[in-house]
Design goal:
Layout: E1 6-9, H1 16-27, E2 31-33, H2 38-42, H3 49-59, H4 61-82, E3 94-96, H5 107-117, E4 123-127, H6 132-143, H7 150-155, H8 158-162, E5 165-168, H9 174-189
Parallel strand pairs: 1-3, 1-4, 2-3, 4-5
Helix pairs in contact: 1-9, 3-4, 4-5
Length: about 210
């Protein structure tokens, strides 16, 4: 099994999870979504889920997002400090950072994460195209509703600073995007990796 940790970043609806599932099947790796494990990732830093919900209800989306940033930064720095060490719980996984865990509002925090992510060869930005307005339209069409922070995520410099590679998903199937990711991984690691496994995948689904 290919052992290196793979990191997928990008805005909501870009195709990270879909591509990640195909890569996980092909490479016999676990796909780990940071968004889906927020509570356990943030727990060591005294995260209060009820307080976060109250902030959202009383103050709205942006203060809620700002509240999350402290915990996102702590969780991401912890992961990046340890995920290259064999035996660590994050070692060798495909890490889907979600939309927020790769965007940092504080310049010093972004600089710190940039330094921590530098040793990771396979940091892949998954995004429909390089036009911000079109990305917002495509991702909202895929999700079927407005994505309140996605324009901010797309226009923010964080993802471009952190990414080592970019995969554009517009007009491509999930399988084509996953195959592109495999080519990147092969090239970066000079490793003989298996061909893409497409069993149970939907070839008509766009990444």
């Amino acid at each position: 099994m290919y052992s290196e940790t793979i990191i997928l970043i990008g805005p909501e609806g870009s195709g990270k999870s879909t591509v990640g599932r195909l890569l996980a099947k092909t490479l016999s790796k676990e796909l780990y979504s940071l968004d889906r494990h927020r509570d356990e990732l943030y727990a060591p830093y005294d995260y209060d889920k009820d307080l976060a919900a109250k902030i959202y209800e009383e103050k709205g989306l942006w203060p809620f997002y700002q509240h999350w940033k402290t915990f996102e930064y702590k969780a991401v720095t912890h992961i990046l400090q340890n995920a290259r060490q064999e035996g660590d719980e994050f070692y060798g996984k495909i890490l889907d950072f979600g939309a927020g865990h790769s965007v940092f509002e504080d310049p010093q925090e972004l600089e710190n994460v940039e330094a921590l992510i530098q040793p990771y060869e396979n940091v892949i930005l998954v995004i429909p195209c390089d036009d911000a307005e079109e990305v917002v339209k495509i991702t909202e069409a895929r999700r079927g509703h407005e994505l309140g922070l996605n324009k901010h995520f797309v226009e923010h410099p964080s993802n471009n600073r952190l990414a080592k590679h970019i995969i554009y998903t517009k007009d491509k199937t999930a399988e084509e995007c996953a195959e592109r990711a495999l080519k990147i991984i092969r090239r970066e690691n000079a490793a003989c990796l298996p061909a893409l496994t497409t069993t149970d995948a939907n070839p008509a689904k766009t990444a």
